[in-house]
Amino acid sequence: MGILRDRKAFCVFLLPGLLFYILAVFYPIEESIRLSFMEWGGIGARKFVGLENYIHMFRDPVFYTAFVNNLIYLVIVVSMQLIIGLIFAVLLTYMTKHVALIKTLYYVPCIITTVAVTQLFRSMYATEPTGLINQIINVFGIRSISWLTNIKTVLAAVSLPEGWRFAGMYMVIFYAALISLDKEVMEAARVDGATDWQLLIKIKLPMIRQIILLTLTMCLTGALRGFDIPFLLTNGGPGNVSELMSTYMYKKAFSSNQYGYGSTLSVFIIIESILVVALLRAVMSEEKTLVKKKQHAGGQ
Amino acid sequence: MAKKKIGKIVFLIVICLFLAVQLYPVLWLFLASIKPTTELSAAPFALPKSPTLANYIKIFSDGKILGYMWNSFKITAVSIVLIVFLSATAGFAISKFRFKLTGRIYAFFTFGIMIPVQITLIPLFIFYSRMHILNTSFSLILPQVGFALPLSVMLFVSFYSFIPNELIESAIVDGCSPYRTFISIVFPLAKNTVITVASMHSIFIWNDFIFANTFISEQAAKTVALGLKDYVGAFGNVDWGATYAAIAVSILPPMIVYFALNKWVAEGMTAGAVKG
Predict the structure, then answer these.
(1) Do B28 and A115 lie within an 8 Å CB cutoff?
(2) Which residue of A4, A25, A176 is in closest CB contact with B112?
(3) Which ranges does the record mark as transmembrane (chain B) (predicted)?
(4) C-alpha span between B132 and A190 (Å, rounded)
(5) DSSP alpha helices (H): ranges in chain A?
(6) How far away is chain B from the Cα of A150, in angstroms, using its nearest Cα?
């Protein structure tokens, strides 16, 4: 809590940022909700259609495809980012030299524009000339696969780059959490004969639980809004096989000019994101009270 | 002892392998960009045998890429100034003024972190086309700044919480106005936060694809990320060399910012996760 009480100065400091934020973020949300009850093709009058767009959405088979795809995309991206990030963060804690350099280099993929990432992966997935991934599987005697047109592989192929891009970033976050742990606890456990593995599973990971949950929030909301790479690599194709919620929304609005229905899909994405975050926050606050109770019990 | 040594070697190999996976694509991109086209199609993943700058000369001779980069630069620079100014002041209001509302307003700002950027595309597109401001820098700056504010405000608020209230109080007692206090005492102290916010968002904004792809259609207004896509189209599957050169040039500025300021960039991105 601050100390200044000058009401006019408060407004002068707060209002420019607040107004900008409302105009750029909340005006669009309000408009999306309004449009989601309308039918509008971009020209002419908007027609109020009540819940028709929502009913249409729940009857739209592509919506369900996109929703399920988005879940699979989410599972692939989140598990890549968290598991790879965590494993390498743990490994890195055993390093003594060059840690800063390695951290810096692991980060590089997430500062490159998605357009470049997409081009990189497009050439790695390529069959003609044989891309890197096909060259590798050829070595093992497997024939080249056209990853981006094969309906069995395409969804994984559009998810992989996003997982790859941020794995290093999550590693840096976990590493920071791991090295900030209280060293005395580790020493005590070691004296009691705990192995490195026990130390990791029973002490270190439970101790960074909060951070893991927080990064999970970031990962999940990031994956729910996944757009650039799938859009650029396949644009949901072939057919709708790799369609995600956001690419479908984009298509409906900007290719088919169904701004009303597109907005309905937008509203669904917003609700989805808010629900996920709310759920995780509930889990986290429960954890916090649990920890507090335990500490309290321990103190007595 | 021998067992421990083997363990250590395996460990180093694993670390380096992951490093290779993370970096190889980027290194390969630079290598591919100095290969002649014939070599690219014959042996795309080998080291270049006869390195050439022809691809770079090609992309610079038509001058398009410089125009794209200039557009991206303009948008990034204006956005960064606005982001720093708006979040430093709003953060100050939230953190150092004693009003009941501040907690609520802070929660309102942090709420924005959950909102996916795509949902603004339809409403803003309609708004811009009605105002006839599609294809302007402003059309990109508005959402870029708006969506950067939640995290930036958070970073500033968390920094200001380390500035003791007594410092501000004594400045006020000495006759400083709140504005003076902010400009000559608080803001200069926030130098690190300013660098974090500016460097991190300059990378994000430079790299933006989705807003540019939606609001920009005129050739003259295209940004780098968009121009890159255009390049790929223009050269088709034939001239990958030029495409890679264009990509290499366009990712250079964020790389420079990152390697020069990586401590601050990493801090900002990490804070996003830990405080979100």
Answers:
(1) no
(2) A25
(3) 9-31, 75-94, 106-128, 140-162, 182-206, 241-261
(4) 68
(5) 7-21, 27-35, 52-59, 61-79, 85-93, 99-106, 114-125, 132-139, 154-179, 183-191, 196-198, 205-207, 209-224, 228-233, 245-254, 259-299
(6) 20
Cβ-defined contact of B122 to A253 (cutoff 8 Å): yes
Q: What angle do CA A179, A181, A186 make, to 5 degrees?
A: 105
Closest CA to B142 of B93, B85, B75: B75
Specify if A80 maps to a domain.
Answer: yes
Residue A259 lies in a domain: yes
pLDDT tens-place string over residues A134-186: 888 888 888 888 888 888 889 999 999 999 988 888 888 888 888 888 888 88
Q: Residue A196's pLDDT band (boundaries 50, 70, 90)?
A: confident
Compute the Cα dihedral for A214, B200, B17, A101 and give only its sign: negative
**Where residue A230 sits, what CATH number does that domain have?**
1.10.3720.10
Could you tell me if B141 and B197 are in contact, meaning their C-beta atoms sit under 8 angstroms apart?
no
**What is the fold of B62-275?**
MetI-like fold (1.10.3720)
Count of domains observed in chain A: 1
Nearest CA in chain B to A32: B123
Contact A215, A174 (CB under 8 A): yes
What is the predicted ipTM?
0.86
Question: Which SS3 state, helix, strand or coil, does residue A240 take?
Answer: coil
Band of residue B272 on the pLDDT scale cut at 50, 70, 90 = low
Which of A70-79, A194-203, B28-37, B236-245 holds the top average pLDDT?
Answer: A70-79
Disruptive mutation site among B29, B97, B130, B176 for chain A (greatest number of A CBs within 10 Å): B97
Confidence of residue B235 (pLDDT cuts 50, 70, 90): very low
pLDDT in tens, A230-256: 998 888 878 888 999 999 999 999 988
Residues 185-244 of B with CB under 8 A from A: 203, 206-207, 209-210, 214, 224-226, 228-229, 232, 240, 243-244
Does any domain span residue A122? yes
Distance CA B197, CA B85 (A): 11
Give the percent of chain A with pLDDT over 90: 31
pTM of the model: 0.88
Where does the pLDDT of residue B274 fall: very low under 50, low under 70, confident under 90, or very high at 90 and above?
A: low
pLDDT recorded at residue B18:
83
d(CA A250, CA A73): 17
Cis preceding linkage at B188, omega within 30: no
The alpha-carbon gap from B57 to the nearest alpha carbon of chain A, in Å, equals 20
Please answer yes or no on whether A262 and B122 come within 8 Å at the CB atom: yes
Please report the pLDDT score of residue A300 as a whole number: 43
Does B85 sit within 8 Å of A2, measured CB to CB?
Answer: no
Q: For residue A72, is pLDDT > 90?
A: yes
**Domain span including residue A71:** 36-284
Q: For residue A250, tell me if it sits in a domain.
A: yes
Strands A47-48 and A38-39 come out as antiparallel
Question: Measured between beta carbons, which residues in chain A are less than 8 angstroms from residue B172?
Answer: 4
Among all chains, which residue has been given the structure tokens 């003024």? B97
Give me the phi and psi of B134, to 5 degrees please: -65, 155
